[in-house]
Amino acid sequence: MLASVACENEKKPNFVVILTDDQDVVLGGMNPMKNVQRFIGDKGVTFTNAYTTSPICCPSRASFLTGLYVHNHLTVNNSLSGGCYGRSWKYLETQTFAATLSGAGYNTFYAGKYLNEYGVKAAGGPEQVPPGWKEWHGLVGNSVYYNFTLSNNGVPTYSADLYLTDIIRDLSLGYIENQTESQPFLMVLAPPAPHQPFEPAPRHKGVFSNVTAVRHPNFNVADNDKHWLISMPPSPLPDEMMPELDRVYRSRWESLLAVDEMVADVVEALDTNSLLDNTYIIFTSDNGYHIGQFSQVYDKRQPYETDIKVPLIIKGPGIQENVKNDQPIVNIDLAPTIISLAGLKPPKTMDGKAIDFNNNITKEERTFLVEYYGEARDGTVDPKCLWNYDDENLAQCYPDYACKCQDSRNNTYGCIRRIAKRINMKYCMFADDENFIEMYDLAKDPYELNNIANDVLPSIKHWYQLTLARLLACRGNVNCDNPFETPNVIIS
């Protein structure tokens, strides 16, 4: 098991983690990343079944840092009241993989977006440096490209004209130049791209001017067998929305080009300083994204593959080169993986498990949880939209979105994602008045067009319901990785 390789070496490995913001993999979000493919993918392993535990920034990032499911770290959405850099999180900060490595003698460095509410006055301000980070350049608030404030080791510094991804690159290169082989280091680089407002660096504007949004079979289709939020009007979206979807799609790609350049520069700096051979490089995203699927506009927060499937590519000492691996990986696995590769023992309280890089089993069976807790009453229902009378229960409703809301209070769900050699299933239950259920056999229906919840045997549906309940209450890897013995049932 490669996760133990680092234990056998006297010299501890280094880690560089690049965490993008809202980068999909289903809609071609990795296509612009030529340097990532060349310097990480061709030199390491690409995981083709990597998922987030929650399709929203703050909960996902909390899971990434702690190895915990959302119901255990209690950061349930992007607001302070929802636990995003709230009181419970500040307790858990002492249990992140950064805190563990720092305590074991690692130099640690962070630059870019942290949790959405970090640094805002209500959460304590930018003077706070999270435990575990010896050099800290955390973005205050949510992703932006210009007009941002960084907390530089607790000193807030405002910038109006500089491009944030380039600043992160410059900070990382300066840090690498000061590292030596005598002490291992951990770097996390968290650029804003391709998060809204999808702003490319000036040098990249127009590079993909001829690119249009992917028109998969589920693009802008009216679908009445999904949760009510998906089928709310307008459905399908009006024709005048299509140019906007295309603009967003290509702007996202263009914003990623600065990240791709950063990756090449970081790899070159590691190589120049004789650090590359002993460094694990991990490239991933906090969640995916949808653009036009099922007549939605552009956002995340939904249980479909566009939103929950993420890129994950890892290279480093002992890892095979240019390999694709389809074992299911969840973002809660990254914290125990990093700790294990550092030669340390991950705590049993983590819900994820260390990746076994020697595992070549095709579609090794795994059943894991995706959970989301809908937001509402957050001031994002535009008065121009006809349903502003229900702004207590709706969110993310704008004229630019054709007034189609992207979230609601009862857009709250728990999903089982079950992947095995002959099984590729999804089961979701919503916390609404109906306990609405969606169920998809992705082996036969990869675009999730056919909700089979009313077509399967009651016994099968009952098993999924019980397993979901168990996962929503699980704690620790032993409990969360084995929710129930899974029956060998194929949906026909």
Automatic annotation (TrEMBL):
Instruction: Name what cofactor the protein needs.
Output: Ca(2+)
Name of the protein: Sulfatase N-terminal domain-containing protein
Q: GO molecular function of the protein, one example?
A: glycosaminoglycan binding
The residues covered by the Sulfatase N-terminal domain are 13-343
Q: Family, per the entry?
A: Belongs to the sulfatase family.
List-wise, which residues carry 3-oxoalanine (Cys)?
A: 57
Q: Where is the signal peptide?
A: none
Q: Which PANTHER family match?
A: N-ACETYLGLUCOSAMINE-6-SULFATASE FAMILY MEMBER (PTHR43108), SD21168P (PTHR43108:SF8)
Which SUPFAM superfamilies does the annotation name? Alkaline phosphatase-like (SSF53649)
User: What keywords were assigned to this record?
Assistant: Glycoprotein, Hydrolase, Signal
- Flavoprotein listed as a keyword: no
Q: Which PROSITE patterns match?
A: SULFATASE_1, SULFATASE_2
* InterPro entries the UniProt entry points to: Alkaline_phosphatase_core_sf, GlcNAc_6-SO4ase, Sulfatase_CS, Sulfatase_N
User: What Gene3D superfamilies does the database record attribute to this sequence?
Assistant: Alkaline Phosphatase, subunit A (3.40.720.10)
Example GO BP: glycosaminoglycan metabolic process
Cite a single Pfam family from the UniProt record. Answer: Sulfatase
